[in-house]
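Q: Convert this sequence to structure tokens.
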Amino acid sequence: MSDQKKLLEFDLLHDAHPLRIEAVAGESSRLIVSFTSVGTERDKWPPKEFVGLASQDGRNHVICVTDISRCWMNAKGMADLILSKISDYVLDHTITEVMAIGTSMGAYNALILGRKMPLSRIICFTPQYSVHPEVLPDEKRWWWFRKQITVWPHKQMDKLPKPPVPIYIFHGDTPDERMHWQRFPQAEHVKHYIFTGADHNFVRNLKGANTLNYIVTAAINNKVGRLNKVVQRAGGMRREAYADYVAAQTLLERRESRGRPSALDD
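A:
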């Protein structure tokens, strides 16, 4: 049986609207929980994400959590149900290490899971700080799903999972991304990277040249030095350095906009 075929053989752990939880077994004692994002089709289940990268050729166990309601974990009892299913799987498979990964809404949900249970790593691509209209009134995306949310137990990401869990966060620097990432708390255990010129969908660009694979693998294995090099080559930088980068770019643009003194043209 090929690794690819094994990756497609999921066991169904839960299937009751709006939540579907599936698992594929691995060979190690490591489990990676992958949360799906919003997807592109309103009435269809969002596709699974990061399965191959998380599995690492069948070595790791993978659980995929799919929410067709797209509620950012705000549905009553959803977070506790997910936690219960993961906990059962951990006990049944003698798991010693649990990680979480996701992009966009999936990344937000991964952080919520980190508030609920101890994780050894959290890997987040373009997570929202909040989709609550009062917290971020300028956020206009995903409005159809957001207006269905009536209760908000997880209103915003003002508190990240506590140390010592390493948290890796990746954002672009377009205005609609900046409104989110600039609000995220900063802390020693949080490695927050900003990619210049990148928008909310920049993860698809990272798949080229195997960059996404390198980033996820380095984060899974907590290889910060390796991760920093890969991110830098892909046009990203640590959040702490981004302010200096913007200041330097602004100064350069001002210098280039200055004309020659008129006295030199005579």
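The CA atoms of residues 96 and 166 lie 16 Å apart.
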